[in-house]
């Protein structure tokens, strides 16, 4: 995996092979950040990265100037890797080791962008809990965006607050808005 743009543009990051992750592809990530760059000033937003895995998405935000980023993952190895990488690259990432659903139930953190990259084998019910909890607990700031990454075989268009989806190869991003 590599950082596409910003101060660490082109930097390759090698995650340990034993992490239970499926990092967002560079092509999908680049397309997503092109979309976000048209709507947000990266140096003026706050980001919550759920199911953060290797931290791939968070590194991209940080490299582009975002200084308020929180990464949540339940895997100790993932959190450890994100902390090590953030320290080595001097990136402003906060990490929280927690089950994402428990975190969403309890947090009062509000952000401009919430990115969720849950396991692709989640059930429709599991996927639906993400926007449900985000909007029930008012975790998005005004004009904020929830982005859920999933397989092209999963359809989230029937969920409340759904706006639209973009497909990149086997990856799909569904966007939710207030």
Automatic annotation (TrEMBL):
<dbReference type="InterPro" id="IPR004398">
    <property type="entry name" value="RNA_MeTrfase_RsmD"/>
</dbReference>
<dbReference type="InterPro" id="IPR029063">
    <property type="entry name" value="SAM-dependent_MTases_sf"/>
</dbReference>
<dbReference type="InterPro" id="IPR002052">
    <property type="entry name" value="DNA_methylase_N6_adenine_CS"/>
</dbReference>
<dbReference type="GO" id="GO:0003676">
    <property type="term" value="F:nucleic acid binding"/>
</dbReference>
<dbReference type="GO" id="GO:0008168">
    <property type="term" value="F:methyltransferase activity"/>
</dbReference>
<dbReference type="GO" id="GO:0031167">
    <property type="term" value="P:rRNA methylation"/>
</dbReference>
<dbReference type="Pfam" id="PF03602">
    <property type="entry name" value="Cons_hypoth95"/>
</dbReference>
<keyword id="KW-0808">Transferase</keyword>
<protein>
    <submittedName>
        <fullName>Methyltransferase</fullName>
    </submittedName>
</protein>
<keyword id="KW-0489">Methyltransferase</keyword>
């Amino acid at each position: 995996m590599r950082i596409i743009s910003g101060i660490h543009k082109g930097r390759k990051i090698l995650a340990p092979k034993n992490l239970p992750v499926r990092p967002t592809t560079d092509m999908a990530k680049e397309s997503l950040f092109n979309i976000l760059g048209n709507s947000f000033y990266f140096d003026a937003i706050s980001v919550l990265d759920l199911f953060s895995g290797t931290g791939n998405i968070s590194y991209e935000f940080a490299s582009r100037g975002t200084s308020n980023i929180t990464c949540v993952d339940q895997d100790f190895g993932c959190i450890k890797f994100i902390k090590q990488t953030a320290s080595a690259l001097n990136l402003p990432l906060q990490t929280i080791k927690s089950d994402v659903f428990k975190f969403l139930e309890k947090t009062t953190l509000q952000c401009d962008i919430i990115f969720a990259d849950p396991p692709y084998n989640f059930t429709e019910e599991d996927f639906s809990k993400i926007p449900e909890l985000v909007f029930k607990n008012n975790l998005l700031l005004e004009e904020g965006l929830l982005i859920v990454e999933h397989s092209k075989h999963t359809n989230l268009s029937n969920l409340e607050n759904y706006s639209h989806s973009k497909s990149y190869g086997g990856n799909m991003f569904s966007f939710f808005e207030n």
